[in-house]
Amino acid sequence: MDVRRRNLMKGLVTGGTLLALGIPPRVFASTTAGSVRKFGLLLGNTPVDAAFAAGVRTAYALSSNARLNGVAESEAAGRAGSIGKAWFSPPRMIKLKGGLLTEYEVVGKLLEGARGVRWIAVMDDGSAAVFMELMRNAGAGLILRGSHAFSRHGASGGSSFSQEVPELRHVWTAASPEFSAGDVLAEKLLPGYNSFSIVEDFLSSEHFAARMYPRRLNKPKPGFLSYRLDGFDDIHLHCSGLSAADGCESVGWSKAGTWVPLKGQELESDEGSTRPRPAQMQLTGWIESVGYAAMTAAMGLHSYQIPCSQRAFVHQLPLGPHPRRNVRTERFASFVIET
User: Fold this and answer.
1) In the chain, where the domains are located
2) Which InterPro entries does this UniProt record tie to the protein (predicted)?
């Protein structure tokens, strides 16, 4: 066994606690969304590579059009001096023909040699732990990590699983609300899918809170009723088509707490909560939507403007008037990191 492989395996063992939590040793608490001008796209030789990359390219193209067409600051980025008004190059795409587990040396050298680059990556679940160890060795920092799954064991499946478990399930861990991906992903999924859940955990919101723009606090989430957990202002729940208690059950949260309307939100009527507003742009599928959301988070275009440590979007509609889509079963992991 060569030295590099031995060091990699040693790191996987000694870093087990952090890997179990999904958190590399260095996390960006002070980096702002607009501080990087170079982006890279790392494809891990998975069945979802093409669709994920298409979403990333779409997000980049739309952000470029926004700058060229002079879109208002509040729509393009939400704050002055942000990446919405700054030039940056298209993502450099790297394809791992043999997958990360066989080309870990290539990835390690890439991360160590490319400084000041924000990477968007997609890979299978088995490669995620190795990728985080390569990040640690390269001194890279986590911005966003996602776990994504679809199965027919959800709301419309005929299995023994609970009917309250959504078919599409996403769990994100982000450095701060500044790099939130939940809003844009929920917006893209809402028009076309009967059930999904998106859970976001933010590792830090202290520095971000000082940079908030109060004018955006009152903006409601179209198609959702928004709540906070009574006594815990930084835990939020956005529900479409089901109650807060049922939403908690769908994502595995305790139903014991009391949920109250999120302060400053203009809640829509019950009818409006189950009749989503058409999205500004339709993507071809949920995997493409994940790539789109990851890229917009990397660019900081959809920052969550309320201090928050955890939040969830849960969507559930009756099956009758909404025929099931032919969605293939998939599981994969996504990352946004900075070297």
Assistant:
1) 23-338
2) TAT_signal
pTM of the model: 0.79
**How does pLDDT run across 71-105, given as a tens digit for each residue?**
433 344 433 334 444 567 789 999 999 999 999 99
286-299 helix and 49-68 helix, angle to the nearest 10 degrees: 50
240: β partners: 315
Within 8 A by CB and 6+ apart from 246, the residues are 164, 239, 314, 316
Render pLDDT for 162-218 as a digit per residue (tens, 0 to 9).
556 788 999 999 998 889 999 999 999 998 888 999 999 998 755 444 444 443 444
